[in-house]
Prior knowledge:
With 257 residues, the chain is of the alpha/beta class. It has helices at residues 6-14, 16-24, 34-50, 57-70, 80-93, 97-105, 158-162, 164-181, 213-231, and strands at residues 3-5, 109-121, 124-138, 144-152, 188-196, 204-209.
Amino acid sequence: MPHISYSELKDWKFCPFYHKLTRIEKIEGFTGNVYTAFGTAIHSVCEKKLLNEGGDHEQHFIDTFADCISDLDDSTDVDSGLVSDMVGQGRQIIPEIEEALKDYFNEFEVLAVEMPLMEPIEGEEERNFKGYIDAVVATPDGKVHIFDWKTCSWGWDSRKKSDKIVTYQLTLYKHFFCQKMNIDPKNVETHFALLKRTAKKNRIEFFRVTSGPKKTENALKLLSTALYNIKNQRYIKNRLSCTGGFGCKFYKTEHCP
């Protein structure tokens, strides 16, 4: 079944023309770097911790990180000094994972790790919503908690924590999770868990993200708008994304003069 994911929606919001180049014409956009390699490796350890899988978690992180680095595109710049620093940072984060989970949730039961979503979108016959929820846990108060691990440097400021496009990831995950599991949204809460590489203490920070009915309505409206424009091949360039923030790799190239 054709589908749309949160990452694709984010690409469309960044710039519909960028979405066209990367998702329709299949021209490679961002293909990863040492930071995404670190994120993949530390995520893998978090999964093992949640599933109570034994073994040497530190060595697993080091080996997975090395594999992810070797899988990067040949044109990707890899700073060996930065890689070495990241290995040390990962080693410092790993021992804090279990403690951070217990401090935040107290008692909890792991219901799922990397839970797949492939759910129909109301009013949309041609595409499903696809996603993978990092973790789903239940607490004794009857609540179900969805959370997503995010690697970062020192943390997120208040603006990033409340950014609607960032938080729509969890809002959409919650909506389609409840749809899949036939659960009342009132009983589901959403959270981000920051894995902070350069923090000197409290290297793991959980915080709740509100995902109520109005926010869910707005997130679904954005999803519907994106699908309408994609289906009708409306790929207007968002000039604000050409050089703002991290900029666009296609800016002033043959693909986007």
